[in-house]
Amino acid sequence: MTIQRPSRNSAALRCIVLAMAANLSAPGIAAAPTASPASPSGASAPETVEAFLARAEGELDAATEASNRADWVHATNITPDTDWLSSAARNRLAALSLDLAREAAAFDPTAAGPVERRKLDLLRRLTNVPPPADKRKAARLSALQTSLSSNYATGAFDFQGKATSLRQAEDLLAKTRDPEQARLLWEGWRESAKRLKSDYAEMVDLSRQGARELGFADMGELWRAGYDRSPSQVEADLDKDWAALKPLYAALHCFTRKRLSERYGASVQPRTGPIRADLLGNMWSQNWGNIFDIVYPGPVERPDIDKYLLAAGYDPMRMVKTAEGFYVSLGFDPLPASFWTSSQFVEPADRAVDCNPSAWTIDNRSDVRLKMCIRVTRAQFRTVYHELGHDFYNLAYVKQPFLFRRGADEGFHEGIGDFIALSATTLGNYKRLGIVPADAPGGDDIGQLLQKALDEVPLLPFAVALDKWRWSVFAGRIAPDHYNDSWWKLVAEYQGVAPPRPRPADGFDAGAKYHVAENVPYISYLKARLYQYQFHEAACHMAKWKGPLHLCSIYGDKEVGTRLRQMLALGGSRPNSEALALFTGSSDADPRAMLEYYRPVLRWLEKQNGGERCGW
Ligand SMILES: [Zn+2]
User: Fold this and answer.
1) 163 pairs with which residues across the strands?
2) Residues 77, 80, 84, 85: is their CA dihedral positive or negative?
3) Which residues form the catalytic set?
């Protein structure tokens, strides 16, 4: 799957993120959850923290399973009835989560033991968008979320006389090589996002009240609390990570700008300053892989894996079996029999389903599944490795108590399968599998690394700009009148891109992103990216790999597997730094591994950029 969408992996958190944004109009379900009056000190026989946590975990476990089952049936058979059932189950789970978050906030964490304190903290953060206790305000917040969600999902604009959705606009923007057409698509989608602005501003105010009632200064502080360090430290870490990664991005930026200028002329793309945002092949300039043909100066000689897969007789099941085999080679137990009987591997012919790739644990235990509509392509094969990473992680921490059956932090879960995919998609691994003949030429390393860098690196500054903007908005440092100018200031600073024409002051360009409308935090994606390469580097080191990191495969290395399983088995029971240290020896997310991975292409870019005035 693409990293832009939250994958529904396992435990409560992600499901609840979605639940809060779900359609709250299912009949018979209260639109707004009611505040629980329960207070540990109010009753005659106050509930102890241990008793409360046992009850909370039991209730959440049951409600999550009910919601997962309803969601699964819905996602694999979309009808008005399953829609109703899944909404109802999600709403029940959302209401329960809010009640428990408030009850947790009423306990004095300093009086609790370390395990209990950790669980109380997790409970307080069960929802990304906390409503105020006031029922009327909570109902209003819920309505605003529903409105933001549906206004985003149904957004469309007129393009060449046709109503155009985001998905259509994205496809057209990826392919067009006409700057005027690109501008119209890019501006059109932002025009449609404008209508979200007043709802968003009101949502921000109400959620601030809700966050304060849970003991957070605002929603941004609540979001930053998920990394086992102080919210201000999370921001400082982000600045540090970005400072280290910026040279790689700046080199890519410089070369891409030069190539765009050569292609379109200096009047469209000047040779200095920011890049025109609409020329990068992506609606948010966060993935430039679509314009590889413009950026790379020559043909890339590389084995066509798509063709080889078909020639080798691969089908969807064989892709999943092969991916499972990689994990098993590291010493993981094979996936349970229920995985093979219950998953959805291919698109059924007789009903509507959700084809977005995702990994699930249905019962919060060993009933893990994959939901995809697999096609036999290199990209889909990589996605299978990604999704199985979630499933093997879920199985690894199954012995933890319910609240700790989760990733070590929000970035971990996405990083595991991507880390495995770095090994699995090397040419060496394709040859080992017999997909690529042993004597096939290796191809052009720089071209392949440049493609990967265009796909993966531009997400980093986008993530920084996006969440810094939201943190400021949530804290009240940016008023709605300044939403757009403050947004473009951050985008200019971090991404070094600029709109094709000046933007209207009353616009809401940040709202053109799904994660803004749906309130999904974004720095977890940046963290996942860092972890992915950090895990890979540590694993290749353990495997005594000598050579460039992008050629390393850890297939079959039992020592790597043992250490990996030790880290995964912790789930969320320990601070993320401990989990990280167990596998990598370092207790901090560290961008150096990612830089090391791309070092060959960075050197190449620097040579190409000689004589350019880089920077923006
Ligand atoms: Zn995922």
Assistant:
1) 158
2) negative
3) 387, 515
CB 32 within 8 A of CB 135: yes
423 falls within a domain: no
Q: What is the pLDDT of residues 159-215, one digit of tens each?
A: 999 999 998 999 999 999 999 999 999 999 999 999 999 999 999 999 999 999 999
For residue 157, the domain's CATH number is 1.10.1370.10
122, pLDDT greater than 90: yes
Quick one: average pLDDT of 398-403?
97
* Structure confidence at residue 448 as a pLDDT band (50, 70, 90): confident
Number of domains in the chain: 1
The pLDDT > 70 percentage for the chain reads 93
Give distance in angstroms: CA of 230 to centre of ligand 1. Answer: 26
pLDDT for residue 116: 97
Q: Checking phi first, is residue 503 left (phi over 0); if not, alpha (psi -120 to 50) or beta?
A: beta
Binding residues for chloride: 227
Residues sharing a CB contact under 8 Å with residue 338, sequence separation 6 or more, in sequence order: 366, 367, 369
Task: Say how many Å lie between the CA of residue 570 and the centre of ligand 1.
Answer: 19
Statement: residue 27 has pLDDT above 80: no
Which value, to the nearest 10 degrees, does the dihedral of the CA atoms of residues 417, 418, 421, 423 take? Answer: -110
Residue percentage of the chain with pLDDT more than 90: 83
* Nearest alpha carbon to residue 127 among 238, 259, 32: 32
Question: Would you state the pLDDT for residue 44?
Answer: 62
Annotated binding site: 227, 386, 390, 414
* Residue 310 CA, ligand 1 centroid: distance in Å: 26
* 593 or 33: which leads in pLDDT: 593
Q: Helix 80-105 and helix 49-75: axis angle, to 10°? A: 160
**What span, in angstroms and rounded, lies between the C-alpha atoms of 259 and 269?**
9
- Centre of ligand 1 to C-alpha 358, Å, is 7
Residue by residue, DSSP assigns 450-467 as HHHHHHHTTHHHHHHHHH
- Is 56 part of a structural domain of the chain? no
| Residue 326 domain-assigned (yes or no) | no
The helices-and-strands tally (H runs, E runs) of the chain is 26, 6
Cβ(251)–Cβ(606) below 8 Å: yes
Report CA(9)–ligand 1 centroid distance (Å).
Answer: 7
- Binding site feature residues for Zn(2+): 386, 390, 414
For the cut 70, the answer to whether the pLDDT of residue 521 exceeds it is yes
Q: What are 487's two structure tokens?
A: 């947004």
pLDDT at 441: 84
**How far does residue 359's CA lie from ligand 1's centre (Å)?**
7
State which residues form the domain around 510: 131-213+216-300+444-616
407 CA to middle of ligand 1, Å? Answer: 12
pLDDT (tens digit per residue) in 255-314: 999 999 999 999 999 999 999 999 999 999 999 999 999 999 888 878 889 999 999 999
Among 475, 335, 463, 356, residue whose Cα is nearest residue 411 = 463
pLDDT band at 443 (very low <50, low <70, confident <90, very high): confident
Those residues whose beta carbon sits under 5 angstroms from the ion ligand 1 are 7, 414
Identify the H or E element spanning 360: strand 358-361
Residue 7: its pLDDT value, please? 33
> Is it the case that residue 14 has pLDDT exceeding 80?
no
Residue 369 sits at φ, ψ, to 5 deg, of: -145, 165
Alpha carbons 584 and 605: distance in angstroms, whole number: 29
With contact defined as beta carbons under 8 Å apart, do 510 and 483 qualify? Answer: yes
The alpha carbon dihedral of 73, 74, 78, 81 has a sign of positive
Please check whether residue 269 lies inside any domain of the structure: yes
